[in-house]
Backbone:
């Protein structure tokens, strides 16, 4: 059973526009939630990490939110740039699986001029 | 750059062959995790090595095996390659105090 669902699967946005990516998860016991950015054919790079007690965290133009009660997270990209074109992957962490990251399939974002 | 390196970058193997992939961890890190990423999917956890011992394994058959050396670099070995083993193989190193995982650039394996 897939414990991480991301939406949309893909989206195309114009340079300079904002977008929001969604992540629903069912992992338990929940510990933290990470968002990664992965360029095609490269390794993922961490954008944000939030514990269950945090509601929001920013990293430059990236802002992640977390609602641990509804098991939902979002990643908002502000003023998109061409370099934002990548896959964005949500990774909820379990307290009983230290080091074993469970990745979602990701949302493929394409930023066009 | 994360300081994690992987080799080779790409390789092509034939079904039934064996392959060894290598990962050099970031300085100060004692843990290496390996992931398999099929096209269009998120990475799937294969196993993790902590101080030269296997410290957790995902749902992969025994023909996927690993090793960690005293300098904390690591190898992933896959025997009896199958077509479905074609994927990007990622390693991630981590260490004290946070054990946050830093990924290497990956090795693209194609099995024909």
Residues:
């Amino acid at each position: 059973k897939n414990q991480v669902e991301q939406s949309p699967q893909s989206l195309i946005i114009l340079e300079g526009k904002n977008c929001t990516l969604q992540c629903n998860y069912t992992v338990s016991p929940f510990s933290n939630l990470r968002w990664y950015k992965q360029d095609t054919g490269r390794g993922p790079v961490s954008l944000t990490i939030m514990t269950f007690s945090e509601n929001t965290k920013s990293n430059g133009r990236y802002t992640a939110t977390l609602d641990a009660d509804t098991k939902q997270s979002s990643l908002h990209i502000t003023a998109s740039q061409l370099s934002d074109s990548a896959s964005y992957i949500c990774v909820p962490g379990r307290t009983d699986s230290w080091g074993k990251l469970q990745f979602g399939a990701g949302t493929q974002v394409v930023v066009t001029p | 750059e994360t300081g994690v390196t992987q080799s080779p970058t790409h390789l092509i193997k034939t079904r039934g062959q064996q392959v060894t992939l290598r990962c050099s961890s970031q300085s100060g890190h004692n843990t290496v995790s390996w992931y398999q990423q099929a096209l269009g999917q998120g990475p799937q956890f294969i196993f993790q090595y902590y101080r030269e011992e296997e410290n957790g394994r995902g749902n992969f058959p025994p023909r996927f095996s690993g090793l960690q050396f005293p300098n904390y670099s690591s190898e992933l070995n896959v025997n009896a390659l199958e077509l479905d083993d074609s994927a990007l193989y990622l390693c991630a190193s981590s260490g004290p105090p946070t054990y946050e995982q830093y990924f290497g650039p990956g090795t693209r394996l194609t099995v024909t």
User: Anything to note?
Assistant: The first strand of chain B starts at residue 5 and ends at 7. The two ends of chain B are 32 Å apart (CA to CA). Chain B touches chain A through 29 residues (CB under 8 Å).
